Amino acid sequence: MNPPPTLPWDVAAPFTQKVVVEPQHLDHFQHTNNVVYLSWLEQVAWGHSQRLGLGFADYERLGTGCVARRHELDYLAATFAGDTLWLATWIAETDAKFTMWRAYQVIRESDRKTVLRGRTQWVCVDMKSGRPRRMPPEFVSAYQPVTASAG
């Protein structure tokens, strides 16, 4: 499902997924729990990676995967049960060797407000040893940074 065309994305045409905040996503303050956002960001990242042609089966075949080294999340507004959110992600930068940064933006559909911005640094590792490993050509080709601004 495509998001409404008027959402104010930080980049042109990011990869997107829709979620609806459910009661089980809420914390004691009755807004979306921070850990839930992190889980959603992981889901949209995997969806994007699969769209780029690199699912977990490809990681296993190549013996190389990406693991999170650092998350930076800015919570800009609270969300509540019933809110429809659009999660977006894109590759923001890569050294084409060992690391890349994936950016995220979450927009509430009802008021078009960005409620979260974030990024994760991913490190390429050998899947058996867990040690850093150079990106295979498939990673370098698929994980290209988005440079165009949405304006």
UniProtKB/TrEMBL annotation:
GO terms for MF: fatty acyl-CoA hydrolase activity
InterPro entries recorded: 4-hydroxybenzoyl-CoA_TE (IPR050563), HotDog_dom_sf (IPR029069)
Keyword Hydrolase: yes
UniProt entry keywords in alphabetical sequence: Hydrolase
One Pfam family here: 4HBT_2
Keyword Hydrolase belongs to the record: yes
Coiled coil ranges: none
Name assigned to this protein: Thioesterase superfamily protein
